[in-house]
Amino acid sequence: MTFAAILFDCDGVLVDSEPISLDVLRKMLADLGWSLSYDECKRFFVGKSSHEEMALIEKQLNRKLDPEWQQAYVLRRNNALRQHVVATSGIYDCLKTLRKTWSQRIACVSAAEKSKIILQLDKVGLTDFFDSHIFSGTQVHRNKPYPDVYLAAAQALGVMPEHCVIIEDSVTGITAGAASGATVYAYNPDHEDPAPLLQAGAHHIFHDMRLLPDILQYALALTLK
Q1: 18-84 falls under which CATH superfamily?
Q2: Quick one: pLDDT at residue 103?
């Protein structure tokens, strides 16, 4: 089997955004009476869209959130990202190398709303790597952990899902990628417990984005033997 396309998640994979977003969320949740540590907040919310975050908060608090609170959260989060988000370490060199082989078949596929994806990619200078191949889970029937957005991305690129390799960092995203039939590589830069990632369907775990091109080339070489 050969990889015809590479599909990257955004948050935590292309941009180091999760600590920024979680910090804003933790502070605003504390004001509502729900105090969480960073690790607890990460466990609850990483990999989820804003809509899913709001639903989870409402369930926990057992009440509806005011639209004004939701709007304030998105505004504060986006302002924080606009000021502080940076690219994932090594991602520029990684994408430059991958583009030599895959050129028009590299995509960004995220559970986040498209405006947030574009805000972050523009801020860190990664947008041009994707040639408008940017897909949001909010624009398909079911968001991650369902495979719909990955299936839509593969179709738009003109490739079969099983010929795609997906780069993810969360259990939610890996579950979605594996359900699509693609090969999923889990990015785990902090060397966290790999068991949940493997159980979700990750085929391989790596820790340094600079090594991804070599890892993929090695995988391709093995399939040609």
Answers
A1: Putative phosphatase; domain 2 (1.10.150.240)
A2: 82
**How many CB atoms within 10 Å of residue 113?**
18
Q: Name the CATH topology of 5-16+86-224.
A: Rossmann fold (3.40.50)
Q: What is the pLDDT of residue 104?
A: 86
> Which letter, b or e, does each residue of 21-50 get, where b requires 16 or more Cβ atoms within 10 Å of its Cβ?
bbebbbebbeeeeeebeeeebbebbbbbbb
Instruction: Give the Cα-Cα-Cα angle 162, 193, 53 (nearest 5 degrees).
Output: 70
138 with 49: CB under 8 angstroms? yes
Instruction: Note the pTM of the prediction, 2 decimals.
Output: 0.93
Q: How far apart are CA 129 and CA 14, in angstroms?
A: 11
CA distances from 49 to 40, 98, 100 (A): 17, 28, 32
Question: How far is the C-alpha of 210 from the C-alpha of 34, rounded, in Å?
Answer: 38
CATH 1.10.150.240, the chain: domain bounds? 18-84
Read off the pLDDT of each residue in 88-92 and give the average, rounded to a whole number.
98
